[in-house]
Amino acid sequence: MKKVLLILFALSQSLSAQFTDINIVKEVKVKNKGVVVSAHPLASEAGTLILKMGGNAYDAIVATQYALAVVYPQAGNIGGGGFLVGVKNTGEKFTIDYRETAPNKASRDMYLDQNGNANTDLSQNGRLAAGVPGSVAGFFATLKYCKLPMEKLIQPAIDLAEKGFAITEQEANLLNSNKEDFKKHNRASVVFVTIKPWKSGDLLIQKELAETLKLIQKFGLKGFYEGKTAELLTSEMKKGNGIITLEDLKNYKVIERKPLEFDYKGNQIVSMSLPSSGGILLAQMLKMSGFENLEKYQQNSKEAVQIMVEAERRAFADRAEYMGDPDFIQDKTAYLISDEYLKNRWKSFSFKKASLSSEVGKIINQPKESTETTHISIIDKDGNAAAVTTTLNGLYGSKVVVSGAGFFLNNEMDDFSVKPGIPNMFGAVGGEANSIQPNKRMLSSMTPTIVLKNGKPYMVVGTPGGTTIPTSVYQSIVNVVDFKLNANISVNSPKFHHQWLPEMVAFEKNFPETTIADLEKLGYKAERWGQLGRTEMILIDEKGYIHAVADGRGDDSVAVE
Prior knowledge:
Blueprint: H1 2-15, H2 18-23, E1 27-31, E2 35-38, H3 41-52, H4 57-71, E3 81-87, E4 93-98, H5 120-124, H6 135-142, H7 150-153, H8 155-163, E5 165-166, H9 169-177, H10 179-185, E6 203-204, H11 207-219, H12 222-225, H13 227-238, H14 246-251, E7 255-257, E8 260-264, E9 267-271, H15 278-290, H16 302-322, H17 333-336, H18 339-346, E10 373-379, E11 385-391, E12 449-453, E13 456-462, H19 468-481, H20 487-492, E14 496-497, E15 505-508, H21 513-521, E16 526-529, E17 536-540, E18 545-550, E19 557-560
Parallel strand pairs: 15-16
Antiparallel strand pairs: 1-18, 2-10, 2-19, 3-4, 3-11, 4-7, 5-6, 8-9, 9-12, 10-11, 12-13, 13-17, 14-15, 17-18
Signal peptide: 1-19
Protein name: Glutathione hydrolase proenzyme
Keywords: Acyltransferase, Glutathione biosynthesis, Hydrolase, Signal, Transferase, Zymogen
């Protein structure tokens, strides 16, 4: 394995800027092989190296996530959290919740000034924005389903951090554009800040991160949540206004939750339950649009988009009012996805005009900001499937690197309702159900999903994108099930997004203008966005052929066992 990684490293040195171009694979169709689709070619390769060593999909998921923490620092992480949805070839379904939690010293009004106004800069940037990380605990919880020990699963990431890798043009641009934020929020120098601007082909070597990963390799879970790394993290808190303590880290717990399951046109959807809103939103949107027989229409036609936008509007209004950590609120999932409730919710739909968001919830003005998350889709040769979405929340999280440990801290506290009615960085409004409380998990939009046909995995899908995640996964499923599109077209065709508030629909820049114009005549307000999500999709046909597609919007890549 080390020999293979050394070859990859040598390629990164010798090929420089050509390295990413040569190794990115956007689409494969194979049989009796395992495949990994992730946001970075080296991370996908790390996953398939583990498959070749005899690991299963869950071994590969762990290895890929660790590798992403090295090669995709804007979202891959050990300082954040995420959700795993798994379906074993035995039919067993499970989910692992390793979402971050609020520190014990967190309080409902911790981001309000003396006048009671929300200071979202504090919830989005710097040490106070960080929740207690859950990723590493989640990786260890996944071992229950793995075949190989953690010592082997983490080794590819250690090699990549220690020896370095050639960054892509996209990565260089991101590091350069965030340089001033890195300098502002870190007292010590960090490897992500250089005197000369980063350029494609430059080597990024992360010695401190490699040592942190080695501590995990040597001491297990305690190598992160106790000992040197925990002390470095809490010391970082004291350099600013951070509140994570050694006790917070030691007491962090992963939760295995019951998957959210429902039927859509003969397909069994398996997704994430609360504290992710994604599964509920997906169920609501698919069921409501199902009332109008979407398959009658063309993809991205006026009628199809209107139906789907109105389903999104109603679902996101419910998100704001009802959803949060199920251990702290009354969980109304069964009610919210029931046919009776949704049929009543859909009564106000009309093809003649746009609904008003005030008809389905209380209007509150809000800004719109961008996001960064990352998703992995995997299936192994034995038919075990895994979908994982993980995040630091914003791009590079809180912008704080733990000095001496080399990893970014999340800014996940912003996913709470900082003040009921005040939008977070993605424009999502929340209410009391998602208010800040100590040890509580913040509401998420992540939607890792596996679709089953006749009890076997048919689709593995997910995407980054904050509040655009559920709507992108929704469109991906509809594209395949209703519009009969293949994986490539489904993933790469232009998407749209609506989230109840603000009162506008976002369209990707290459979306059909005729459809947008027709919708504007009905009262819809349109905005053009550069891109929506980066979907990783695997489709398995009835003959067992695996069609895997990495989104063309980024450096995402497929690797084959």
